[in-house]
């Protein structure tokens, strides 16, 4: 499916210039398209399973609601919700969606305190959309059998995707996640649909102020856990490659509280969403790196690198959560 066809199916009009590839992803490319109706960011994807449609529907519901309440974000080409949310079928099993192109740049980490406070208020705003997460929709962290984990870990070692030490850390992290979820079953089952990916890569600083991008990872999350994830990633812990700045965490929390966000537990349980999300993402990266979802050798190698970074981040988080919890108490 080429971009001209996608633009036609979406009703964007005639292409006026050569499209610019913004994200060179084998399975989900992102383009900038200039048409006679304006400049657009266009995504094209092919669902990788039946569970994709309800996941996309939940994400689209939040994006449409966020636009309606005035969240600073690119304008969706349409807010009419279909079976795949804001994605539209464009033929041959492919889907596409578009938002207005916004000129700007991504902030570096750790972010400034004013930007962190803005992001905290943003989390509170999204929580006010109050869209209940459907527990039947896949896309949240899910438990897997011991046999499945052993099979996947053995394959990862055999393919040299993970070392024995990486596997050990991953196993301990799965056990820690299962225990944390068991202790917080009531909150785990009563989540809202939240963005779940407010990081530097999904914030654009434009001439009109900061803008939130990319709702495609939106799904089940507790708003307080969402705030904790957002605060620590903007503070410099993105992908576990930096030491978070406490001042940024506190600014994000202040912005959340000032916007009316509900504060949850200020102990290690506040990190359940962040930690389970890390383990869930690493599981997906494991499948991709081992070829479970196709892709070229280079594509799989990229996932293998991100997987190892995720496992290292798990180790850091397990050690740091007691200290980080004291920042929330303060």
Keywords:
single chain; 330 residues; alpha+beta; Phosphorylase Kinase, domain 1; Aminoglycoside 3'-phosphotransferase, Chain: A, domain 2; 2 domains; 5-stranded antiparallel beta sheet; two-stranded antiparallel sheet; globular
- According to DSSP, the number of beta strands is 9
Alpha-carbon distance between the termini? 53 Å
Q: Determine Rg (CA atoms, Å).
A: 20 Å
Strand order of the largest sheet: 1-2-3-5-4
Structural class: alpha+beta
Number of helical segments with 4 or more residues = 10
CATH class of the largest domain: Alpha Beta
Q: What sequence of helices (H) and strands (E) makes up the elements?
A: HEEEHEEHHHHEEEEHHHH
Q: CATH topology of the largest domain, what is it called?
A: Aminoglycoside 3'-phosphotransferase, Chain: A, domain 2
Principal-axis shape:
globular
Main sheet overview: 5 strands, antiparallel
Helical amount: 40-55%
Q: Do you know the CATH architecture of the largest domain?
A: Alpha-Beta Complex
Mean pLDDT: 93
What's the domain count?
A: 2
Question: Would you write up a description of this structure?
Answer:
- The chain has 330 residues and is of the alpha+beta class.
- The protein has two domains: 3-100, Phosphorylase Kinase, domain 1, CATH 3.30.200; 113-329, Aminoglycoside 3'-phosphotransferase, Chain: A, domain 2.
- The chain is 48% helix and 13% strand.
- The chain has ten helices and nine strands.
- The chain has helices at 3-10, 52-68, 113-128, 146-158, 164-183, 185-188, 223-237, 246-258, 272-289, 297-329, and strands at residues 20-23, 30-35, 38-45, 88-91, 94-100, 192-194, 203-206, 209-212, 219-221.
- The strands form three sheets. Strands 1-2-3-5-4 form a five-stranded antiparallel β-sheet. The chain has a two-stranded antiparallel sheet with strand order 6-9.
- Helix 3 packs antiparallel against helix 7, helix 3 (113-128) runs parallel beside helix 8 and helix 5 packs antiparallel against helix 9 (272-289).
- The longest helix has 33 residues, at 297-329.
- The radius of gyration is 20 Å and the shape is globular.
- It starts with a helix and ends with a helix.
- The model has no long low-confidence stretch (mean pLDDT 93).
């Amino acid at each position: 499916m080429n971009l001209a066809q996608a633009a036609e199916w979406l009703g964007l009009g005639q292409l006026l210039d050569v499209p610019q590839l913004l994200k060179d992803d084998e399975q989900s490319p992102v383009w900038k398209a200039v048409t006679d109706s304006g400049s657009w960011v266009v995504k094209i994807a092919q669902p990788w399973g039946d569970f994709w449609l309800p996941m996309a529907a939940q994400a689209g519901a939040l994006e449409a609601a966020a636009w309606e309440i005035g969240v600073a974000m690119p304008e969706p080409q349409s807010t009419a919700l279909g079976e795949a949310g804001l994605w539209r079928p464009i033929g041959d099993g492919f889907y596409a969606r578009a938002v207005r192109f916004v000129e700007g740049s991504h902030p570096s980490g750790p972010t400034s305190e004013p930007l962190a406070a803005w992001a905290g208020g943003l989390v509170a705003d999204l929580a006010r959309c109050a869209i209940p997460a459907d527990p039947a929709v896949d896309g949240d962290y899910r438990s897997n059998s011991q046999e499945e984990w052993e099979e996947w870990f053995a394959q990862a070692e055999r393919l040299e995707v993970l070392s024995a030490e990486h596997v050990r850390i991953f196993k301990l992290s799965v056990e820690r996640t299962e225990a944390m979820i068991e202790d917080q079953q009531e909150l785990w089952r009563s989540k809202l649909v939240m963005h779940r990916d407010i990081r530097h890569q999904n914030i654009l600083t434009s001439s009109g102020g900061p803008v939130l991008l990319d709702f495609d990872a939106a799904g089940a999350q507790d708003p307080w856990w969402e705030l904790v994830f957002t605060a620590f990633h903007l503070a410099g812990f993105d992908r576990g490659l930096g030491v978070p700045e406490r001042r940024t965490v506190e600014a994000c929390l202040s912005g959340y509280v000032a916007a009316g966000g509900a504060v949850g537990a200020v102990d290690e349980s506040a990190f359940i969403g962040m930690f389970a999300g890390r383990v869930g993402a690493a599981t997906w990266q494991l499948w991709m790196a081992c070829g479970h979802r196709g892709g070229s050798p280079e594509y799989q190698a990229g996932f293998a690198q991100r997987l190892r970074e995720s496992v290292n981040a798990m180790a850091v988080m397990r050690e740091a959560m007691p200290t980080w919890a004291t920042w929330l108490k303060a």
